[in-house]
Design goal:
Layout: H1 2-9, H2 12-18, H3 21-38, H4 40-43, H5 84-120, H6 122-136, H7 140-154, H8 160-191, H9 195-202, H10 207-243, H11 255-263, H12 272-298
Length: 304
């Protein structure tokens, strides 16, 4: 373990990271968002979803630095008296859960189909790439809306609340897989003609083992970059769906749900109910995207 850490600290990747102040700042912001969301039950000042602890008398309190604010509510409260700071931390948990799960699902599906298309070729390659071309002609959010609507129409209404989170993850993931498939397919077309793959064929290594053990590790670099960039897009897609009222249920509010709730009171003077969740969403997505941009440049041999 110590040797692996030393090798990493001596690598070009770490050198590139430490030489970019924007990347370091983005990593700090992303880490704060992730840790704040992960440990929200232990570090949040209040539990905003414990109905027994809510008091409507505390509703619409401005931030603590305002003359009418209260110290126990640093960023103010919403229309139900929920502490906004705690609500943002808990809402970020849902946003990150959906974003990470949808990206993992899109990565798994896209890498598998892209690897098959690039290595097997022929009719399978043509079919999968035409499906990708058709899906990429539509914005991802429209595909996610369509999938979400179809799944909700098929399933009984009484189970919508229980499976809403899984439906959103599936809808976002199924709308993003073509990016991974095309990336892996292009890299696989290059790798399958190299000497190490041909040598494995000559000695009789099964096709499935060649794809998994030899080709896959050599095409994962671009996939890591696409996954990092796609994480921010998945979080934004979830926020958009929740803002439109077709995302996660109100009992599991995400940052998008908090922004939608606060939007109803934006022009009545309670600006903090929507502004602070919006700023948290911007900070989270921007930091992840900046890390993805750095990773893309750092792993590009032409820029070294």
């Amino acid at each position: 373990m110590a040797a692996a850490i030393r090798r990493f600290l001596d690598s070009d990747l770490w050198w590139s990271f430490t030489r970019s102040p924007v990347t370091v700042l983005s990593a700090i912001v992303a880490a704060m968002c992730i840790l704040g969301a992960a440990f929200a039950p232990w570090i949040a000042p209040h539990n905003p979803f414990d109905l027994a602890s809510l008091n409507l008398i505390d509703a619409f309190k401005p931030p603590a630095w305002h003359e009418d604010g209260a110290r126990e509510f640093l960023l103010g409260t919403d229309n139900q008296g929920r502490d906004m700071l705690s609500a943002i931390m808990y809402g970020a948990r849902v946003s990150l859960l959906v974003g990470i799960s949808a990206t993992a699902f899109a990565t798994l599906l896209g890498v598998t189909l892209g690897l098959l298309a690039g290595y097997v070729g022929g009719t399978l390659d043509s079919l999968l790439m035409r499906i990708c071309d058709i899906q990429l002609t539509f914005p991802s959010i429209l595909v996610a809306l369509l999938v979400d609507g179809v799944v909700r129409a098929i399933l009984p209404r009484e189970v919508h609340a229980e499976i809403a989170l899984f439906v959103v993850i599936f809808a976002i993931g199924i709308s993003e897989w073509p990016k991974f498939a095309r990336t892996v397919r292009g890299s696989t077309l290059v790798e399958r003609n190299k000497e190490y793959v041909q040598a494995a064929r000559v000695i009789g290594v099964p096709r499935a083992r060649i794809m998994v053990s030899h080709v896959l590790p050599n095409v994962m670099g671009p996939v890591l970059v696409v996954a990092t960039l796609n994480l921010g897009l998945a979080i934004l897609a979830e926020a958009t769906l929740s803002f439109l009222g077709v995302g996660v249920p109100p009992t599991q509010p995400s940052l998008g749900t908090l922004i939608r709730i606060g939007n109803d009171f934006l022009f009545s003077g309670e600006w903090w109910i929507t502004i602070f969740p919006g700023l948290a969403l911007i900070a989270m997505v921007l930091s992840v995207n900046l890390l993805g941009d750095w990773l893309r440049d750092a792993l590009n041999p032409k820029l070294r």
